[in-house]
Structures are given as C-alpha cells and as structure tokens.
Amino acid sequence: MTKANEIKRGVSLYSYQEEFFLRKMTLEDCIAVSARLGALGVESIAEQMMPGFPNLSDAFYDSWHGWMALYGTTPTCHDMFLDTKMYKGRLMTDDEMLASVVRDLKHANRLGCTVMRCIVSTPPHIMALAAPYAEQYNVRMGIEIHAPFNFDHDWIKAHLETFARVGSPYLGIIPDMGIFEKRFPRVRADRYVRQGAHPHIVQHICDVYARHAGTEGLVEAIKAMGANERDLAMAGDIAHMTYVEPRRLLDFAPLIVHIHGKFYEMLEDGTEYSIPYDEIVPVLRECGFNGYISSEYEGNRHIQDVFEVDSVEQVRRHQAMLARLLGEA
Amino acid sequence: MFDRYIICEHDFRNVVGDQGVVGFQLRTRLPYYRGLGLSMVQDITLVVDGQVIPRDSLSVTVHGNTYSMVAMETAYSDRWEFGEEAVLTARLPGGLAKGLHKVDLTHTLRISYLPFLSIGSDTKVLALAD
User: In chain A, which residue's Cα lies nearest the Cα of B41?
Assistant: First the structure.
C-alpha cells in the first residue's frame, strides 16, 4: 500500500561540478539555483566545493548557514571520502580510518546535515566503530550502494550483516539510482562513437545490455563484427554497470537514509534515458521513505568533449520529473 | 573526466631568475571531480615537443605553496583543490624558444576507492607568452 508521500526533493551539488570546476558558478550560486529549482535539500561534497577542508573557518560555517537561511534551503547530506591510500606504500590503519570518519562526522554536524554518505569502499568494521560517534553528532551514516556494487555483492552483504549485528539506527544505506541502469546511457554510447567505435557494434552492445541476460559471448561476437579498441572498451563498461529490479528496494526499506538520484541525461519529455524513475519513485513511496532524493547529475563527463554542459537545465528537468512522480501539485 | 581541461591555455611562459631564464611554467588542473591530497598525486609526466621533462626538475605550486615531486609524496595536509589551476614549473636552463610548443601532460592519481591508478592526459599546442 502506498503511504502518505513525505519524500522531499534535494540536489547534490555534485551536479554542478562542470560549472564549479570552470569557475562559472560559486558554491553560493549552486545553492541559490537549487532553491530556485525547488531542490530545497542541499547535499554537498566538502572536498569538491569547500576549499581548505578539513580546516574550514568559523566564518565559512557562518556563511553556509547564512545561505541556508537566505535561500530557504536545508542541509541534508555530506559526502565523505576515505583516503585509505593517502600514504604511499601502505594503507591507513583502523585508527587512521576511524579518525578520518569522525573528522567528517564533525563537519557534517557543523553544516547541519543529519546524513553522511560513506564512500562505498569504507570497510564494514569501520562503520561499526564509528556508530557511537555518528550518534554523538546526530548524523546517520549511509554506505553508498553504487555500481558496480549492488545488494547482492559480498561487500554490501558484509555491510548489511554488520548493521544488523550492531543494531544502530545511525547505520544505513544510500542507494544510488545508477544501480537501476535499465539501458546503456545514450550519452556514453554516443561518446564511444565519437571516439571511433563502430555505430553498428555500439548498437549491438546496447541491445545486449538492455536484455539483462548476461554478456557471455559478447566480446567474441563483436570481435567477429570487426570490433576495434573503443568497441571493446564499451563492452568492458558493462561489467561495471548494474540493473537491479527496483522492487528490491523494499527488502531494505528500513535502512534507507537518503537517495542519490543519479542521472546521465534528462530528455525534453521529462524522462531519464537509461534509469526508469517512473518505476523507482513509486517503490520508494511504498517503502515509506520520508527523506530526500538528491538529484545527482553525472552526464557532464560524457559530453564535455564536444558539448557545452548545462547542468542547471539538467537538474531542472530532473526536479520537474521528481515533482511529477511524487504527485506534487 | 575533465581531461580536456588539464592544460590551461594561458600563462605558459619562461621563468626568469637572477641568472636569466631558468625554466618554464604552465597552469594545470587535475582530471578529477574533487580536490585531492597532494600525497595522492602519484605522478606528473610532462612532455614538451616530444622531450620528456625529468620528474626531478618539476615542482607544483598550489595556492602559493610550492612542492617538488618528492616533497609532494609526503604532503599530507595540503590539497590540490577541485578545478584549481596549479602552476607546474620545470627547471630548464635557457627555457623554451619563443613560439608554439606541443605540450603533453599526464596526471596519475591514487584514488583510494578505485582498484587501479586513475590516469588523465591532455595535449595542447601552446604559444609561449612574452
């Protein structure tokens, strides 16, 4: 039964990375435009748009809260990274990893976020060790379920088992909608063609992918069609893509703390080319999810070689789609 | 990702020291979607007109802080910020001749969650500024 709709719309500022990178938009610009598009929940990546992190000044945090008040936005989620390879020749110790996670929890708390995205490589036992700190700072930690991982991978299962054992409400998951990649993204396929892949082989790979019946024999088949290095690279991409039946979300509903609304290409008709949001959003409602869906545009990297990127227009379309699917008037 | 933005087209110039021209420099950005701690910039390969510039003659300046490639390996508390134009300086007595030069630049990054090194390259023909 579909419950009352309490899902809220937000955006990850990751979406505007092209414009920020090129210094066409500032952090404040990103927040202001999000508010204008109705994406009132703001997810941020300190290491992307907050220079100086983790040594941010009190003045910075004051500015941040000033922007939230000015634009009527709410901080939702801080996206953390765990640089386990910071030291050449060795990995971080458990103590170093925990210290890094706690550092980010403190930052999330100062931003006013109640969720922190944990990069998928964060080990389960570090999540468990950090849980008391998450509670202390009132920030729920969500491990990101991101392709090539999905619910059925051992790494994710190890997280889910750890969460069940620890039993803390501060440990959960952030499914990235890129795990529901139903079709091969057109922007990626087109780029392979620009790079010299054969159009008929690209089409064949897209067709095989869309059947979700495995890729056994694909490489041999396209080699027989005369595949070049770009064709083979595209076929290799499939190994890093996943299509999960959206109803699988129901199995994990109580653990969902936040949603990454990943998208690559919003069409003019208000649909995403490769990810079936019209199937996904009703399932999230059925889950009783009442947090934020953050629009997360990731198409820029596939078109920036030849096209002007317009992240704001892409987010606008994604927000309009979410509003429609959430039944907003 | 962002490969086409690695080499900036402006401020490619010789560096003049007390003893005349001691090298050259250009501005460069990382091909990655966030800033990265300097110790994880595993390598920078600069090739000008087909000639590899030795690694030990390179230095990187981010927001006013200058590091040799060796010093960068243990720079744990400074970050090459997202989209930041760093200055890459190459020691080369006499510098480069006036005119156009083909520049190839490759950044090799140690990204913790990737099971492989992240490598981005850019090639541009740049005019040496006066």
Answer: A86
Residue A223 lies in a domain: yes
Query: Does the beta carbon of A101 lie under 8 angstroms from any beta carbon of chain B?
Result: no
The neighbour count for residue A327, using CB atoms within 10 Å, is: 12
Q: Residue A153 in contact with residue A180, Cβ under 8 Å?
A: no
Listed in order, strand segments (DSSP E) in A107-232 are 115-118, 140-145, 171-175
Q: In terms of domains, do A213 and A315 share one?
A: no
Q: Which of residues 87-126 of B touch A (CB under 8 A)?
A: 110-113
Q: Does residue A2 form part of some domain?
A: no
Helix axes A186-194, A229-237, angle to 10 degrees: 160
Q: CA A175, CA A172: separation in Å to the nearest integer?
A: 10
Task: Answer whether B33 sits within 8 Å of A14, measured CB to CB.
Answer: yes
Q: Which domain range does residue A262 map to?
A: 8-181+242-325
Residue A127 within any structural domain of the chain: yes
- The answer, for A88 touching chain B at a CB cutoff of 8 Å, is yes
Instruction: Say whether A23 and B83 touch across the interface (CB within 8 A).
Output: yes
In chain B, residues with a C-beta closer than 8 Å to the C-beta of A240 are none
pLDDT digit string (tens) for A261-295? 999 999 999 999 999 999 999 999 999 999 999 99
Q: Is residue A192 part of a domain?
A: yes
Question: What is this model's ipTM?
Answer: 0.96
In terms of domains, do A89 and A25 share one? yes
Partners of B8 on chain A (C-beta within 8 Å) are none
pLDDT tens readout for residues B7-63? 999 999 999 999 899 999 999 999 999 999 999 999 999 999 999 999 999 999 999
Which domains are delineated in chain B?
3-127 (2.60.40)
